[in-house]
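Sample entry as discussed:
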Amino acid sequence: MGIDLPLIWAVIIIFGIMMYVIMDGFDLGIGILFPFIPGKTDRDVMMNTVAPVWDGNETWLVLGGAALFGAFPLAYSVVLSALYLPLVLMLIGLIFRGVAFEFRFKAKDDKRHLWDKAFIGGSLTATFFQGVALGAFIEGFPVVDRQFAGGSLDWFTPFTLFCGVALIVAYALLGCTWLIMKTEGKLQEQMHNLARPLAFVLLAVIGIVSIWTPLAHPEIASRWFTLPNLFWFLPVPILVLVTLYALVRAVARNAHYTPFLLTLVLIFLGYSGLGISLWPNIIPPSVSIWDAAAPPQSQGFMLVGTLFIIPFILGYTFWSYYVFRGKVTHEDGYH
C-alpha cells in the first residue's frame, strides 16, 4: 500500500489552521475585549501579555496558506476566487492590528486613542471576516470545469454573517480566559466577571450554528443523524456541554489556568464538529482532498521540506511561550 499523500497534507493543513485559531485567537480576542477595559494601564498589561508572541502566532496562517497552494492548488484557486473580498478585508484588519501593536506604546498620550481604535477595529475586522470565510466554506462553492462558478458576493449571506459574529464571541472568550491566566488583581477580576456571560453566549451561538447547518444542508444532516453515525458523533455535543459546565464552575471558583484550557477544549470540539460535517471534502460540497490534490511528485517534494521545518516552528513557539511564562503586572512585566 502506497503513502496517501493527500491525506497527510490534509492533516498538516488541519493542524496548521487549528494552531492558528488557538494561538492567534486569544490575541485577537484581547483586541475585541479592549472596549470593556478603558484604563490605559490595564490596556498596557493586556497588550503586554501577547506582545512577545503575537507575530509568531501568525506563522501558522502562512503555513496553512502555503500548504494549500502547493498541495491542493484546485482548492486554493476556488476558495480564494470565492472569498477574495472577505480574505482581503481580513488581511487589512490584521495589518491595522499589527501596526497598532508597534505604534501604540510609542504614541503620545493625546494620540494613543487612535492606535487603540486601530487595534480594536483591526481585531474585530479580522475575526469577523475569518468567521464569514468559515461560514462560506461550510455553505460550499459551485465548481464547473475545475473553476469557481459563483459570484463575487456569494459569501454574503445571513449564515456567513452570523458565523462572523459567532467567531467574535469565541475569540473574546479565548482572550478573556487567556487574560485570567496571565494577569492578576483587578484586571483578572474583570475578566472573571466577563467569562461567565461570554461562555453562555458562546453556548447559544454554538447551538444556533449546530441547528442551522443541518437544516440548510441535508447532506450534513444525513452525516450527523443517520445510524450508526449518530452514536459515533454524539459524544461531541455532549462533551461541549460538559466542558462549558466545567468552564463556568472553574470561573466561579476563580481558577487561573483551568478556564483557558477548557476554552481550548471547546475550540477543538467545535473544530472537530466542522471536520465531521465536511470531511473529506476540501471544496464543499463535493470536491474531496483526492480530487483537488497536486501531482504526487509535487506533494512528495514539498513534504520533505515541511516535515523538516514544522519541528523548528513548534520548537521556537514552545520556547517563546516558556521564556515569557508567568503573570504580567503593571509594575514589572513578566516575573
User: Anything to note?
Assistant: The chain has 14 helices and six strands. The beta strands are 143-144, 147-148, 281-283, 287-288, 328-329, 333-334. The chain has a mean pLDDT of 89.
